[in-house]
Amino acid sequence: MPERCAWVPSDDPDYVAYHDEEWGVPEHDDHRLFEMLTLEGAQAGLSWATILHKRSGYRTAFAGFDPGMVAAFGSEEIERLLADPSIVRNRLKVESTVTNAKRVLEACANRGSFDAFVWGLIDGAPLQRRPRRGSDIPSQSPESVSMSAELKRRGFRFVGPTVCYAFMQAVGIVNDHERGCFRSPELGG
Predict the structure, then answer these.
(1) From first to last of its 189 residues, what are the pLDDT tens digits of the chain?
(2) Active site residue: 18, 22, 77, 95, which one?
(3) Domains of the chain (ranges plus CATH)?
(4) DSSP 3-state assignment of 158?
């Protein structure tokens, strides 16, 4: 059995698969980037396991994270989502997803893609942290503070520095796999 980051519960196959196949892998697909920004914002105040286990519900509820479709959601769709037990039914988080979809579309119009916008905030290359253990991983960084400020300036919501850092980790903008984890060297650490 390969050595993984200590934070991965070995008895949760969804968590193991997420760690082994997605977390820290550089992502450049606009829908996936929007998905992870949404899920990291939805996690605020909750456990990642809660969000991870509701992920398929989120994908269905938010039209596969197609920002064009989500940006068109009106009050009727928002009320439907607030009654949907397959997602976290928090009005501010649901409404922020619709708002953020609109901001993603604006970023695409200005930069050609959400990918170009997000990765352009850190000069396009993944940051290699190589922490010894999970306790060495910060909850935010100067880069996430900067990203948060820029996203907020553009009207995004639920994008504080901690959410942005978790997003950066999730989409491979930063590689925080622990040094002993089998994924660290595979992802350039």
Answers:
(1) 899 999 999 999 999 999 999 999 999 999 999 999 999 999 999 999 999 999 999 999 999 999 999 999 999 999 999 999 999 999 999 999 999 999 999 999 999 999 999 999 988 889 998 899 988 999 999 999 999 999 999 999 999 999 999 999 999 999 999 999 999 999 986
(2) 18
(3) 13-186 (1.10.340.30)
(4) coil
In whole angstroms, give the CA distance from residue 104 to residue 113. 8
For residue 25, what is the DSSP state?
-
Is 48 a residue of the active site? yes
Strand partners, 128: 175
| Residue 106 among the catalytic residues | no
The one catalytic residue among 15, 23, 35, 40: 40
Whether 119 is catalytic is: no
Instruction: Write out the two tokens for 2.
Output: 């390969």
pTM of the model: 0.96
**Annotated active-site residue in 7, 22, 48, 77:** 48
Close Cβ partners of 103 (under 8 Å, ≥ 6 residues apart): 151, 154, 155, 156
